[in-house]
Amino acid sequence: MSSSKNVDPVEFAGEFCGAIRSSQIIPEAFKPSSRQPIAIAKLLMAKQMRQKSILNQQDYVEAAVVTSHIEIRSEAESLAVQTYSYLAYTREEKFKDVIVQLVEAITGKDGDEKVLNDWFKNRDEYDEEEKKALLARARQALAKTGMYYARHFINNFYVSGTGPEKGYSVRQYMPGNDDSSAIDFELSLENAMADGKDLRQLSYEDFLTREVRRQRRNVLYLQDMSASFDYRVLVSSAVCGSILVHGLPRDDQSAISLFSDKLDVIKRFGVKEDIMKITDKLLSMESSGGTNLHQAVKWARTEFSQGGCNQANFCLIFSDMGFETEDVEASLDEITKMQNMDVRITFLRFKPFEHYYKDGSKLLADSGCQMVTVDNILDFPELMSRIISPA
Q: What is the C-alpha to C-alpha distance for residues 288 and 299, in angstroms, rounded to an integer?
């Protein structure tokens, strides 16, 4: 991919605000005014002058998000990443992208998932120039697919109750920004009567809305990358990782690692990394070797031990369950430690790649880990929503 020096701050600001304005899921009240693209461009150029260096993707995304309405910052972040990904192509890559899309239209190859299937199944058969063009399309397809599934399947996990990370907050109703259905009339009337106000003369300023704070999530995803898997699992794994990178709200955290004979860390909790670098790591995955669960759960336990309190912790482990009994026995101590930290551990078994050892699987189930069988690996997005969003 080309250097970020090719992304002009003014062009980025215009493209991003155009994407927000054309979005069908963002309410009109939250769409940008003519001042937002100016503010974005000023922020980026000022930062570039202070740093005296090339801006990276995170700089562009942060400028777009901080100038957007709080209510749409999750959507703004996704659109900012997509805008940056497109503008970061060189002219040559953009030209090749047009050619690839034209060929797809002629041959009937359509859809982002088809692009990802072509990439993982056939990437070794292309020469360097063809592979470079396909990789550019795969980057864009993976980001778009992750954003799509995240928007449609992962909810915001609202939890009522007490505590610093959850519970209710009350604020004044804002005409034009809030839906009238958000007004808590009972609370508003109680507050007005307590202040001795004449109920016949209430104005918008007297109405209150009650919001439920969202409990933060730490989601750790471990993907078995042993040699028994084919390209279909690579596609699913890449989409899984993209959902967690692009789909979780900004105050949630995700960590991703592949494991086989060795551990390949893609993303850690609390570490800011260029999203495009993570995308390239996901697109370079290859299945090989055996399966070592112990080193994977040991890394997971270390990651969770660095997290804060009052957060919902989820550990998702996708595997063919080909764990030797000795490997599982060595892993149980780390699994118990995670469970004592209130980490919810779920093993997902893929069909038709299921190749599990019954003794090892029974030990894991007896330890309190949830076991789920996935008949179709493309069912992952909805399944993830149910696991990490137990509303």
A: 20
Number of Cβ within a 10 Å radius of residue 297: 25
209 by DSSP, 3-state: which?
strand
Alpha carbons 369 and 317: distance in angstroms, whole number: 10
Residue where the block lists tokens 């202070």: 50
Q: 38: domain range?
A: 4-87
Rounded Cα gap, residues 247 and 280, in angstroms: 17
Could you give the 3-state DSSP secondary structure of residue 373? strand
Same domain for 269 and 315, yes or no, is yes
pLDDT digits (tens, 9 = 90+) for 337-383: 999 999 999 988 776 555 556 777 788 888 889 888 877 766 776 77
Nearest to 112 by CA among 87, 77, 149: 149
Q: Count the alpha carbons within 13 Å of 114 in the hemisphere toward its beta carbon.
A: 9
CATH number at residue 304: 3.40.50.410
- Looking at residue 152, what is its pLDDT? 67
Strand partners, 125: none
Question: Is-contact 332 365, C-beta < 8 A?
Answer: no
Compute the distance between CA of residue 344 and CA of residue 369 in angstroms, rounded to an integer. 8
| Span between the terminal Cα atoms of the chain, in Å | 40
- Let me know: does 243 contact 70? Beta carbons within 8 Å: no
In angstroms, the CA 80 to CA 76 distance is 6
Q: Are residues 180 and 251 in the same domain?
A: no
Q: Say what the pTM is.
A: 0.61
3-state helix, strand, coil in the chain (%, to 5): 55, 15, 30
- CA torsion 239-240-246-247 (nearest 10°) is 120
Q: For strands 343-350 and 312-319, give the pairing.
A: parallel
Over range 174-181, report the average pLDDT. Answer: 64
CB 134 within 8 A of CB 114: no
**Do 347 and 244 share a structural domain?**
yes
Place of tokens 């430690």: 337
